């Protein structure tokens, strides 16, 4: 049914109505789209945007926690934090690889991140002034990430869906270690409980913003859901996260920083759920556009890491070139 083309490229005939309808039919049959399959250019671009943003988020997301590795209070806490930050680096690598299958290079994605052309999650532009922020990030940020990412394991694009399976398993450990850390602080001295409460106050609203704008303002949702890249809307996932997380806060004696939070028995088709206050979208867009408290530091840190790593990339490429040349010479000698 499909003519084979270069990865991610389509001729104009392939973009005909017939081609688009046949592609949508594959999606509707829940077939996985693989990298070499012909696909609409808009589908390819959307995936490069989303997977690229996701990869950048993982790599930039290492920075707020990396800030605490040398100051973790015990060896056990340090081990867990180190493992978590390393996992995030690994997630970035799987995701960059998944995006590369769509025909964009790692260098190009990095350049787009460092020049501000590509986005990464707003959440990583907030500072981590206290140890309790490590608990809040694991509990809330990884908790929100899991809610968003479990449905991505069923994304229509095969390489992304498969990468997400392992990522979600690791995020689940991250969430548990964060919640456990918060629960220990909440049970500790009054000063420790206050640290945990302050961290919750700092991270709650930015975590709700991670899910993206309200559905009414989400420019990509309808198309992404039709292509089964997204399975739930931003508001649906945000609501699931709120409903799962509020009882967890109550259990450890912490209070959500939202005076309008209240149980609404009519939510979720009569099963009940929480109403929340208005989200400050002006803050969200300010942070997304580069005006958050840590945007500048985050990009400076990634730029330095990229520049400092140049010799490693050059050495690896030179080694690969040498091996290729040796192999070619050996083959020539054998002929
Ligand atoms: N931050 O029309 P929609 C993690 C942008 S990984 C910045 O609703 P869409 C692991 C959006 O890109 C966290 N920008 O867009 C970890 C679009 O802009 P564009 C990252 C945002 O794509 C834990 C515009 O707003 N996760 O946490 C944000 O349908 C702990 C309109 O929005 C992923 O990337 C935001 N929060 O839905 C690591 C998951 N929200 O491109 C370390 C995959 C929206 O038109 C420590 N991504 N925007 O210029 C997704 O599921 C989707 O892309 C959404 C946005 C849900 C983020």
Sum up the overall morphology in one term: globular
Helix/strand order, N-terminal first: HHHHHHHHHHEEHHH
Biggest sheet architecture: 2 strands, antiparallel
* Gyration radius over CA: 22 Å
Spatial gap, N to C terminus: 42 Å
Helix segment tally? 13
- The strands making up the biggest β-sheet line up spatially as 1-2
Bound molecules: Phenylacetyl coenzyme A
Q: What share of the residues lie within helices? A: 55-70%
- Unreliable residue runs: 1-8
Query: Quick one: how many beta strands?
Result: 2
What is the average of the pLDDT values? Answer: 94
Strand content: under 5%
- Structural class, by secondary structure, is mainly alpha
Quick structural summary:
This protein has 335 residues and is mainly α. The protein is 64% helix and 2% strand. Strands 1-2 form a two-stranded antiparallel sheet.
């Amino acid at each position: 049914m499909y003519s084979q083309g270069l990865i991610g490229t389509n001729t104009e005939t392939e973009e005909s109505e017939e081609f688009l309808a046949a592609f949508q039919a594959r999606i509707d049959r829940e077939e996985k789209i693989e990298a070499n399959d012909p696909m609409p250019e808009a589908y390819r671009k959307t995936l490069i945007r989303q997977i690229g943003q996701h990869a950048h988020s993982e790599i930039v997301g290492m920075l707020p926690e990396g800030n605490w590795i040398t100051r973790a209070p015990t060896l056990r806490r340090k081990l867990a934090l180190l493992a978590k930050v390393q996992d995030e680096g690994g997630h970035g690598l799987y995701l960059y690889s998944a995006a590369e299958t769509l025909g964009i290079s790692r260098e190009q994605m990095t350049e787009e991140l460092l020049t501000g052309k590509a986005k990464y999650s707003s959440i990583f532009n907030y500072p981590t002034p206290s140890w309790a922020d490590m608990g809040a990030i694991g509990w809330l940020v990884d908790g929100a990430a899991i809610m968003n990412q479990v449905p991505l394991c069923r994304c229509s694009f095969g390489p992304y869906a498969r990468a997400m399976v392992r990522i979600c398993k690791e995020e689940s450990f991250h969430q548990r270690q964060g919640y456990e850390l918060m629960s220990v602080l909440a049970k500790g001295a009054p000063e420790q409980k206050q640290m945990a409460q302050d961290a919750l106050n700092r991270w709650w609203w930015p975590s709700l913003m991670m899910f993206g704008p309200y559905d009414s303002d989400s420019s990509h949702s309808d198309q992404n859901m039709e292509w089964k890249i997204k399975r739930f809307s931003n508001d649906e996932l945000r609501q699931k996260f709120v409903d799962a997380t509020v009882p967890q806060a109550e259990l450890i004696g912490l209070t959500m920083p939202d005076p309008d939070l209240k149980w609404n028995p009519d939510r979720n088709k009569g099963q009940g759920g929480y109403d929340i206050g208005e989200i400050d979208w002006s803050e969200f867009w300010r942070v997304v556009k580069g005006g958050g408290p840590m945007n500048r530091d985050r990009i400076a840190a990634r730029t330095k890491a990229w520049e400092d790593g140049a010799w490693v990339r050059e050495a690896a490429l030179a080694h690969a070139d040498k091996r290729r040349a040796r192999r070619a010479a050996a083959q020539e000698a054998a002929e």
